[in-house]
Amino acid sequence: MDRFSFLNAAHTEFFAQLYDQYTDNPDSVEPSWRSFFQGFDFGMATYNEENVADQMAAYSSNSVASGQVSEKVLKEFNVIKLIDGYRTRGHLFTKTNPVRDRRTFSPNLAIENFGLTSADLDTIFDAAKILGKQPTSLKEIIRHLENIYCQSIGVEYMYIRKPEVVQWIQDRLNVNENLPNFDLEQKKNILDKLNEAVSFENFLHTKYVGQKRFSLEGGESIIPALDALIEAAAEKGVEQFVMGMAHRGRLNILANIFGKATQDIFSEFDGKDYDQEYFDGDVKYHLGLTSERKTKSGKSININLAPNPSHLETVGAVIEGITRAKQDKYFPDDFSKVLPIAVHGDAAVAGQGIVYEIVQMAQLDGYKTGGTIHLVINNQVGFTTNYQDARSSTYCTDVAKVTLSPVLHVNADDTEAVVHAMLFALDYRMTFGGDVFIDLLGYRKYGHNEGDEPRFTQPVLYKIIARHKNPRDIYAEKLIVDGIIDQAYVNKIESDYKAKLDENLQASRKKDLTIIKPFMQDEWQGFVQVSDDVMLQKVDTTYDKKKLDGIVATIATLPSDKKFINKISKIVTDRKTMYDNNQIDWGTAEALAYGSLLQEGYDIRLSGQDVERGTFSHRHAVVKVEDSEEEVILLNGVQDKKGKFNVFNSFLSEYGVLGFDYGYALTNPNALTIWEAQFGDFSNGCQIMIDQYISCGEDKWNNQNGIVLLLPHGYEGQGAEHSSARMERYLQLCSRHNMYVADCTTPANFFHLMRRQMKTKFRKPLVVFSPKSLLRHPLCVSTQEELANGSFQETIDDTSVDKSKVKTVVFCTGKFYYDILAEREKLERNDVALVRIEQLFPLPTDQLKSIIATYPNADDYVWAQEEPKNMGAYSYMLVNFNLVPWRLASLKNYSAPASGSHTRDRRRHADAIRMVFDKNLFR
Asked: Residue 836 and residue 851: Cα distance in Å, rounded?
């Protein structure tokens, strides 16, 4: 590459300004520049004079490379290269590491590397204009660049492709040379918040010796930075603040930013029992909080810290979903009013793949939130792993470059610089609606937790840390030297804060129980928590038939003024035909469920891979005009619709997207929030969200959530990866009142299941093993009456047999029912009854008991499943279904869910069906 090619792409405005000055008055520019422009005019004589600036840059590059310019102009270009060097590489040579020498990077920013020498230091250069300065000496240019790019803040931004964004950043950095400029009151407030942060940790360290708290020590400057962020954000119109973070520093932030009562924190340290038996709680450094904060100017801001497990970075997806739900609900026309901030650890942000998934969401219509501030508490070590072993990239924040987001690397010991960087990040987010990253380089005073010994693995580093002053003392000394405060002031604020903590500690020890306030309860007014007995009660999900008629008319009619492909036209119009003929298929029943809920005022959010059409081409929630690909969403035309219908094809992610949708459902209980897997087994890509949030969030954090998972499941010869949604894993997670699990066999039952999810006064996660082949099975249809006046049936008894003649009662679920039914008809076995269990959890035991009682002569009971013995619902039924002795009809144990050979798969499937009808085949 031409070493002067940078001139083609950068600083064209500089050339244009000088050229304009030359054309107005040639004598006003320095002689070497005048000679250069005369040559340029000659070269342009035969060209159109449009794009003068770009032509000038190209000419400059060619002229410099060929040696056709004077030494003075060549030096000017070298100064431009030097400026570019600072802008692109200055972050590598900053004073941002408080406890370690920075790694050496080459080439450095020595002027000799840019064709300049010490003899040029006093020379006046016009290139200073690029920096917004008048022509000045090279020495002054370097001083200016050093202050902006190489002090306590290093900035990465030159990879951004939008010139207006780059210019905004450069203009912002030029203000006071990117150095903080706070008044006396602001400086005292910074010190006060630093004191709270340091004193809080010291207090806990002496009162609860050896207890895990995941101290913030080494990164205390985040407290005044967050405080300043909230104050400034409120002034800019932000009304809600959503934060997610891991455990390090969480207690400090809860106490000193969110205003959590320290009495409650001390009760948690003392290990007291909870004031409710309903839930089991979580460790103190996983809990969340919602509070209302009044800013100094009197503005009110709702601030939320989401609860999270130890699985690092998972909460980042959740807070994005929380933020989007709040934006959709309260500020659909101005996303800037809800601000998400994700606090990361350095090892986790570099090592956890979900971070990449979250970053990729940032600009997608279904998932964007108007920009997130990412703040990395960089301890420079992950548990025991040094940062050199924790990543291949230069920085832990290099994932920011995926979305061309600016990154600020800041020395955590320079608290004013940290606050300054945070305010820069806020302004960037509010101006451009994009993500911004802050890499807060500090240290971890103790080991991974307070009982860990870090000197086993980092003895040299921890000798340095042991001698290192905390950020409060460093900043207090600076303010004392500047004459702003004296030592007495520091002593007083420290003693006052400690006295308050002492008082609260004594008060907490007079209480017997710990009170856990549920997160975000302001969004859950009118909802109650229930146990499994209430979950099993019938819910009225009927819907007026005339209204269903109207919905069908809408979803079965394409716009007449637009042209669609013939296949979609037939699919859509067939909905009305099937409805009129009482042969309603799955896709139509699903659309009717959504339409009815929209009329009742519920919002619907459907998200996942290919959900707009549906993996199996059954849904067609979005149809495309043939010639233009214009999108038509028929459900948006439902008459008297009060809710909003949103359907989004997600990017190819399970983990991040389900986390997002979980957060959305956590925030808006009046939105039916659905995540659909492309195939059910793909849900194991987001197993952490299922294990750590969905199945136990209510039990740990006292939070309800109505997220719906649609997991296509069924053995149809498609091999190991597209058969099983791993039903056994979900059933193993079921306990008490934590969720619903269903496997429906009729469109009407799915219709009522979706409606029930919204019609209760409580919310539980719902896992549905949804069909594939049943979407078009000729027997899998329902009537208008079943939709309008039916209800969700947890069990479906066999009404086609003479119960007095039944000897064998078969219990099954899902598609396997239709396979067994076909075999029964083939064998003409009227002595076999097929009972469908449509809801597997909570198991409708009383209903099953009543059904069993209606078969007086039965002496053979079977649990039949198409999954292998070590999969499916067998182990769950073995533990939970003991009303009668029963035998198993299934495949034997296998490692993979299904065979890759279609022939072998069908043979095994047939064997399982034969076992239903022949008890001697039991194995």
From this structure: 11
- The per-residue DSSP string of 104-132 comes to P-SS---GGGGT--GGGTT-EEGGGGGGT
Among 868, 877, 862, 847, which Cα is nearest to 919's?
A: 862
The one-character DSSP state at 780 is: -
pLDDT in tens, 245-258: 989 999 999 999 99
DSSP 891: E
In this structure, the number of other CB atoms found within 10 A of the CB of residue 100 comes to 13
| 703: exposed, middle or buried (Cβ count in 10 Å: 0-12, 13-18, 19+) | buried
Mean of the pLDDT values across residues 685-704?
96
pTM value surpassing 0.90? yes
The DSSP secondary-structure symbol of 585 reads: -
Cα–Cα dist 873/83, whole Å: 67
Q: For the chain, give the percent of residues with pLDDT over 70.
A: 94
8 A C-beta contact, residue 612 and residue 365: no
pLDDT at 3 over 60: no
What are the residues whose beta carbons fall under 8 Å from the beta carbon of 494, sequence distance 6 or more? 195, 199
With CA atoms as reference, report the closest residue to 833 among 916, 756, 746.
Answer: 916
DSSP 396: T
Average pLDDT, the chain: 93
Helices (H) and strands (E) in the chain, counts: 32, 28
858, 808 contact by CB (below 8 A)? yes
Is-contact 529 278, C-beta < 8 A? yes
Please give the backbone phi and psi of residue 325, each rounded to the nearest 5 degrees, phi first.
Answer: -65, -40
> Measured between alpha carbons, how far is 368 from 364 in angstroms, rounded to an integer?
5
User: pLDDT, tens digit, for every residue of 741-768?
Assistant: 999 999 999 999 999 999 999 999 999 9
Portion of the chain with pLDDT greater than 90, in percent:
87
Q: Which residues contact 306 (CB under 8 A, 6 or more apart)?
A: 242, 243, 244, 288, 315, 318, 319, 322, 519, 663
Residue type, position 272, single letter: K
Which pLDDT tens digit goes with each residue over 58-71? 555 566 556 556 78
Per-residue pLDDT tens digits for 632-655: 999 999 999 999 999 999 999 999
Amino acid at 335: F
In the structure encoding, which two tokens stand for residue 764, read together?
Answer: 């539980």
Q: How many CB atoms lie within 10 A of CB 132?
A: 12
Q: How far is CA 15 from the centre of its chain?
A: 44
| Paired residues of 632 in beta bridges | 623
Which positions ≥6 away from 64 have C-beta within 8 Å? 4, 7, 73, 74, 77
pLDDT at 67: 58
Q: What is the pLDDT of residue 59?
A: 58
Local structure of 439: helix, strand or coil: strand
SS3 state at 25: coil
